[in-house]
Amino acid sequence: MRSITEALVSMIGADRVASDAEALNARRYDQWAVKHLRDWRGEAVPAPGCVVRPQSVEDVQKVVRLAAEKRVPLIPFGLGSGVCGGIEPTPDAILLDMSAMNRVRYIDSDDLLASFDAGLNGMEAEEAVAAHGLTIGHWPQSIAISSVGGWVATRASGQFSTAYGNIEDIIHSIEAVLPNGELVTLGKAVRAAAGPDLRHLLMGAEGTMGVITGVTFSLRAKAPHRDYSIFYADDMRAGFEAQRQVVRADWRPPVMRQYDGREVRRLFRDYERNGKAMLLMVHEGPKARVDVELAAMHEICGAAGLEAGDPMAAKQWIERRNHVPSWRDMFERGYVADTVEISGRWSEIGAIYDASIAALNEIPGVINASAHSSHVYRSGINLYFSFAATFEDSAKMEPAYFAGWRAIMEATAKHGGGVAHHHGAGRLRKPYLHHDLGESGVVLLRRLKNCLDPEGIMNPGNLIPDA
Fold it and tell me: pTM score > 0.85 for this model?
């Protein structure tokens, strides 16, 4: 890698290229639990050959062209919030750290558009538009540690998605450098029928199809009023049915989250009600509309057999929703855990929930298997499973971790659900993507990859199922 590093220094400057041990070790992995576990156990976790921090689109083009010419693996890295194994550098790879590309390019309050460098922190982007009385409307739990480019690369979803949409509903355009170094801007009009929507080649591609350098989002006015509601259901299926009726009646509370009894006990101990499931909703908009929506929720949920609860539980969630313990804290206490998000149609989701929880509870060492829903659609809903296992022997943690994932993936696929909702696929879901794409879809994905990246330099080994 010495000759590659020297060439990079010559092209973009020594201050933007690092090959010292501290810089390399800091970019060995993102937030994937497995890499943190291996590091905590003292196992070897490979580092990249060098870390490059471009400051401009031109810098990115130079790096990509060099990597293509020399056939060197190139791994785009945002702010490192990924949790599915999308980042796995090797000593022969260049890691492209996009965090120095962090400008707010423009905010247009009339056209409701905002454009950012891809490496900008998500919370900083939201704060920039909030100063204009606007919002992006995208609130992932990782908003303070993720980049706007990373949102696009993983097809992310935010906590307010039921009304405001997922990232694909918010994107106006994407600027990217292709694997041959060419610059493209995909997306121009507010809506287009100019052939296939090429933006989707980069949404969810996780660095395998090119390097996202800039994103432009369609904004909305910040809601003038907010209110909350809580309802209890006898079980998850009863709650699912109430949510189905809410969206069928064409109501869209921005936040609709339903917790099973185990999660209510763990997360809302002061609001637990005899093991029942809890439906939590946040309502935003003009006060008159919010008041009408609240009244409709009480009518629909009451007719579905749900009981009203204390809205303070929802206010508590708003205040605490992004606080999570570190992986190392869990390992030190003897636990390995993770969350797994899937989706299913209304007719499937009850069976997916039951089968996944049952399968998790059969894994030796598992002490918690629970779930909540957090994103609602006209035709179905997602589920966000949590599992935790404990062992005196830490060597048993990683096998249990993969067993938990396998249990949820297989139960979801068996009952017709989608195995990936909003965290991306990475290496973790790669073996299961055929359930969503079909075998011919997997072949098509490989063909697209080979067409755009014939040298296979872009984040090799990630996302694309092996032939």
Answer: yes
